[in-house]
Each structure stands twice: as C-alpha cells, then as structure tokens.
Write a structure and sequence with these properties.
By secondary structure, the protein is α+β, with helices and mostly antiparallel strands. It is built from 7 helices and 11 strands. The protein has 3 domains: about 40 residues; about 100 residues, Roll (Outer membrane lipoprotein wza fold like), CATH 3.10.560; about 100 residues, wza like fold.
Length: about 270
C-alpha cells in the first residue's frame, strides 16, 4: 500500500474516532418511550397564570360611550424608562404608548375612579369580570367591555441551548417545550435527561427535574406548563463537562484521538522513508 493510501486510511479512522466520541443517539433523541399512534399520555392539570405582586397588566375599558369610558382608562403616554411620568407610582407606559398597571406588594392596583382593587391571585378573565361588575354595580358604565392583558410575562432559559436568554410570553399557557423552542433547542452538548425548572412559589424556591428522553416523564411533570418568571436550566452532558479550555468546541477525547492518529501518521512516514 502506498504512503498516500496509508495517510488517507489513518485520516478516515481519525474522523470515525472523533464522530464516535460524540455519543450515541440515545443521548440526544427526545421522547424515546413514545411510539407514534400507540402512546397516549394524560397531561397534568393546567395551572392558569395568575397575577402576582410586581406583575404588570394592561386594562382597557370600552363601551358605547367612548367619552365615559375614558375616565377609566389610563392616558396613553409615550415615554422612555427613567423619565418622569404623571401616571402615578403603580403605573407606567412603554415607548409604544401602552399604559399598564404595576401590582403593588399587597397585590393591589390603583384603578381610576374605583380606587384600590385587589387583583393578586386572579386570572385575566377574573379581573375583567371583577372590574366589569364594579362598574355596573356602581352605575358608572352600563355596558362595559373590559380587556385585561399581561404586559411582562417572561421565562428565562439558561445552559446548553443555542440561544439562551429571557423570553416574553404572549399567551396564558406556555410549556417547557415552547420555551426550549424559543431558545433554539438544546445544543449537542445539552443533557436531555437533566433539565431543571426553577420556580418561586411564595417565599419558597422550588426545583423540578425533567427528562426529555422520556415523554411520559415530561408530559406528567408539574413543570410541563411554565409560570411567569420560571427559569429553565439545561445541564451540560459529560462530553461538554470534560472539554479542554483550549477549544470549547472539541472534547478532550477528540483531541487525544486526533493526537494519537497524528503520531501514527508521523511514525508511518518515518518508517516508509527509511
């Protein structure tokens, strides 16, 4: 066999060694226990997102008389954060002109005309019905239409994902899979069996573990549906944990394999040229 063929063979072996060191498909495949058309998994009970202190919500009141309902709507003021505002301490507006209420530490908002309203622990639709009832019972508006939206719902995704960061939630229900999708999915170094969701419940910080390789465990987890301000952390796998600081994209095993092949190539060249 010629020197050229020897070198090609050794380079091929080096590539195979590097590829095999990346791990098996069982380390990266999701939902390995689910079979299409055969598996049925009952989802956990949906825990609706409710208002908490420091949450921001927008509330808009409409009726057949726009001038009357203007009394119950915050003025749309376009300003930048850090500038003064005439809206009060528990309300603010974005540069797009959407005014919102900030829920205070006691769970209240200061609503025009009605005064302080306790909204902590309530869902959007509950708040809308509550305010609508107050307006009708007080003979303030006969036919109010109240729209309530969350303005600052976010979740954070950290660790071995392609685009870690803090992501806004545009709906009342979001799952762990939605959050990971927004973060660009796990990297090849993400440990599919060790994903953690950190959640503050009252004055207690709770941690939930999820195993993405098992659909049964994912869909039955109390952390399948996320809450506002949840933090999702993806742990690195053993390959990433053992990486050399010299190159963050290659594992130590790959470098050792490549070095071994390189030594073999040099030894072969020396032998054949004697």
């Amino acid at each position: 066999m010629s020197l050229y063929k020897h070198i090609r063979l050794l380079i091929l072996l080096a590539g195979l060694a590097a590829f095999s060191s990346c791990g098996s498909s069982k380390d990266v495949v999701y939902f390995q226990d689910i079979k299409p058309g055969e598996s049925e998994i009952k989802l956990p009970e949906l825990k609706a997102i409710t208002v908490r202190p420091e949450d921001k919500i927008s509330i808009i009141v409409n009726s057949r008389d726009p001038q009357l309902t203007d009394l119950f709507n915050l003025p749309y003021v376009s300003r930048q954060l850090g500038q003064s505002s005439s809206l009060g301490r528990n309300s603010w507006s974005t540069s797009q002109g959407i005014s919102v209420y900030t829920v205070d530490a006691d769970g209240n908002i200061d609503f025009p005309v009605l005064g302080k309203l306790r909204v902590a622990g309530m869902k959007r639709e509950n708040i809308a019905e509550y305010i609508k009832g107050e307006l009708v019972n007080g003979n303030l508006v006969k036919d109010p239409i109240v729209t309530v939206e969350f303005a600052n719902l976010c979740v954070s995704v950290l660790g071995e994902v392609n685009s870690p960061g803090r992501f806004s939630i545009d709906r009342d229900r979001i799952t762990i899979l939605d959050a990971l999708s927004m973060a660009g999915d796990l990297t090849i170094y993400g440990n599919r069996s060790k994903v953690m969701v950190l959640r503050q419940e009252g004055d207690v910080q709770k941690a939930y573990g999820l195993d993405l390789t098992s659909g049964e465990r994912v869909y039955s987890s109390p952390a399948y549906y996320l809450q506002q301000n949840d933090i999702v952390y993806v742990e690195p796998n053993n390959s990433k944990a053992g990486q050399s600081e010299i190159n963050q994209n290659k594992s130590v095993g790959v470098w050792l394999s490549a070095g071994s092949i390189l030594v073999s190539i040099v030894s072969l060249i020396v032998t054949l040229t004697k």
